[in-house]
Amino acid sequence: MKKIEIKKGQILQRKGDLNSKVYQVKSGLLRSYSIDEKGKEHIFMFASEGWIVADNVPPDSPCELFIDAIENSIVVEREKDFSKEREVQKFIKRLGVLQKRVIMLMSASAIERYEHFVDTYPDITQRVSQRMIASYLGITPEALSKVKGDRKQRQK
Amino acid sequence: MKKIEIKKGQILQRKGDLNSKVYQVKSGLLRSYSIDEKGKEHIFMFASEGWIVADNVPPDSPCELFIDAIENSIVVEREKDFSKEREVQKFIKRLGVLQKRVIMLMSASAIERYEHFVDTYPDITQRVSQRMIASYLGITPEALSKVKGDRKQRQK
DNA sequence: TCAAAATCTTAATCTACATTAATGCCTGTG
DNA sequence: CACAGGCATTAATGTAGATTAAGATTTTGA
């Protein structure tokens, strides 16, 4: 259980690595993401203070995701370990978040997904680029720009 | 830990219920799904022999999903319990499946998602209607029909 | 501090998938 | 048996969001 300092832009994990660790964020902001065959990045999740970032695969399987720092950050590294009640609680919470994400992706439009994101993670909305929000929502930055315009119209 | 028989079409859990149980499938086939504001069903997952179906929310929160039987089935009902190693293993596996699903939904086309489904769950592909496969993939039955046609063309 | 690179926005065009509708096929039920 | 309701397929038309392109603004780094 050691403390690690990660500079903005530094990569903590690559797809294909063997990595049995989870990272608890003490300060800063990280992201996990995949890169598809066309070279496009898709942000899987953000992790700010208090959250855990990790690949959700068994400890002995190769990783599916990349993890890097969006801001200079400090994380605590631990082994994946489900024997402790506290750890398990966090994983249940993560499962709930993922379930909601799948339902969102299947049933909601880009506008609805954006509004849900802003409502649920107002802090993160302020700290990341439009480009990254779009990547998390599964749309292009151009489409997100349009969504925001339409949204302002609606509010009047 | 009791054994329950569920007839085809019978509902085991409704959205909004309080349900601290998980169901291990002994025989048959079940599904969990959500219904959006427009009344459209979205299949979240299928569960055949050996799998577990449950809502991935904390034991004391209201459910997000419906669960019902696609075939006459027998399940074993248990409390959500993460103190046992075996249970925890299943949950890690589920987390991995969900992670892959999110990445799929964000980065793959309807054709790619269909091929992945057929490759990964060939047994289930045989046992459910096209309508349900489409619902799982997040597309309409009409679009699925087209995808399959295009696919046959490509193979020639 | 200044040039190069990355980000954001707007607009035109394109495309994958949705919607609507029509037809034939099963399947269950009075 | 008959026929009513659900399922699958095909085809036409519609639309959300992708792609491409161009310009304005910010960030980066030598």
Can you describe what's shown?
- The structure is a homodimer of 156-residue chains.
- With 156 residues, chain A is an alpha+beta fold.
- In chain A, 40% of the residues lie in helices and 28% in strands.
- The first copy, chain A, has five helices and eight strands; from the N terminus they run E-E-E-E-E-E-E-E-H-H-H-H-H.
- A four-stranded antiparallel β-sheet of chain A has the order 1-8-3-6, with no helix packed on it. In chain A, strands 2-7-4-5 form a four-stranded antiparallel β-sheet.
- In chain A, helix 4 crosses helix 5.
- Chain A is globular.
- In chain A, 31% of the residues are buried.
- At the A-B interface, helix 1 of A face helix 1 of B.
- The structure holds a DNA duplex (30 and 30 nucleotides).
The count of strands of chain A amounts to 8
Give the termini separation of chain A: 52 Å
Strand content of chain A: 25-35%
Our Rg estimate of chain A from Cα atoms comes to 16 Å
Q: Which two protein chains have the largest interface (Cβ within 8 Å of the partner's Cβ), and how many residues from each?
A: A-B, 32 and 32 residues
Element order, helices and strands of chain A?
EEEEEEEEHHHHH
Q: How would you write the strand order of the largest sheet of chain A?
A: 1-8-3-6
Q: Please tally the helical runs of chain A, counting DSSP H or I stretches of 4 or more residues.
A: 5
Quaternary status: homodimer
The unreliable regions of chain A are none
> Which class best fits the helix and strand makeup of chain A?
alpha+beta
| Overall pLDDT level of chain A | 91
- The shape of chain A is globular
Q: What is the share of helical residues of chain A? A: 40-55%
Question: Main beta sheet of chain A: strand number and arrangement?
Answer: 4 strands, antiparallel
